[in-house]
UniProtKB/TrEMBL annotation:
InterPro entries: ClpP/crotonase-like_dom_sf, Enoyl-CoA_hydra/iso, Enoyl-CoA_hydra_C, Enoyl-CoA_Hydratase/Isomerase. This is Enoyl-CoA hydratase. It comes from Streptomyces asoensis. PANTHER family: ENOYL-COA HYDRATASE (PTHR42964), POLYKETIDE BIOSYNTHESIS ENOYL-COA HYDRATASE PKSH-RELATED (PTHR42964:SF1). Coiled coil: none annotated. Belongs to the enoyl-CoA hydratase/isomerase family. It comes from the Bacteria.
């Protein structure tokens, strides 16, 4: 029997899904992407679920793509689209580090809360690839000049900066993240389910347009880059904990 990679709990109509693969820093492996996609589908069919909180175990929300056990090329865009199309709000609760593909999950969520200790980085360029698929939910939501800086440099930045540029909704700072999140969940519980679903449709329409128009192209670009020589060298260097040869 395989170990579940998604923890689940429910409280007054709010289903909490927890990425629970801390051994590989909740990297987006084939199994984790599959299990999270299925858990979201189940939430969508359950009338007792009014909203979903997406969180994590360990000190990392997600380290991005699992380089040892990557999902099929179409699986990550399908997961992001699942979050966007779910007829219930999805709220990210981040108390750790988020890297690369993990940032795509935040972009797909309707609301994102981060503790003051959370850190973020678009590390794709440092291993020889580009944030192709995750750009689909992020480009419509994040400040363009800031996104250019952080995607091109791979710099690490904190939760306050993430809130300033629109990557997350709110930086909780030193406040307990559950305390900061409580009024949001209370508001969602007070909302009429049908009205909540239609409101989410209005808010995600432009983001979903990008998926309809560009998901295929971005998936092909991502697959091409991951199969290229820079990515092979970058991933090898990452796994060997050394700088790739292009670092000057």
């Amino acid at each position: 029997m395989t170990t579940p990679l998604i923890g689940r709990a429910r409280d007054r109509g709010v289903e909490t899904l927890s990425l629970d693969s801390p051994a590989n820093r909740n990297a987006l492996s084939h199994a984790l992407v599959r299990d999270l996609t299925e858990a979201l589908a189940q939430c969508g069919k359950d009338d007792d679920v009014r909203a979903v909180v997406l969180t994590h175990s360990g000190n990392t929300f997600s380290a991005g793509a699992d380089l040892k056990d990557p999902p099929p090329p179409e699986a990550v865009p399908a997961l992001l689209r699942r979050i966007l199309e779910l007829r219930k709000p999805v709220v990210a609760r981040v108390t750790g580090h988020v890297r690369a593909g993990g940032l795509g999950l935040l972009g797909a969520c309707d609301i994102a809360f981060a503790s003051g200790t959370a850190t973020f980085a678009f590390t794709e360029v440092r291993i020889g690839v580009a944030p192709a698929v995750i750009s689909l939910p992020l480009l419509p939501r994040v400040a363009p000049r800031a996104l250019s800086r952080y995607c091109l440099t791979g710099e690490t930045f904190g939760a306050a900066e993430a809130a300033r540029i629109g990557l997350v909704t709110h930086c909780a700072g030193d406040t307990d993240p559950d305390e900061a999140l409580a009024p949001v969940l209370d508001g969602l519980r007070r909302a009429a389910p049908g009205a909540l679903a239609r409101t989410k449709e209005l808010l995600t329409a432009k983001v979903l347009e990008a998926f309809v128009e560009d998901a295929g192209e971005m998936t092909r670009l991502s697959a091409s880059l991951f199969a290229g020589p820079e990515a092979r060298e970058g991933m090898t260097a990452f796994l060997e904990r050394r700088d790739p040869p292009w670092v000057v």
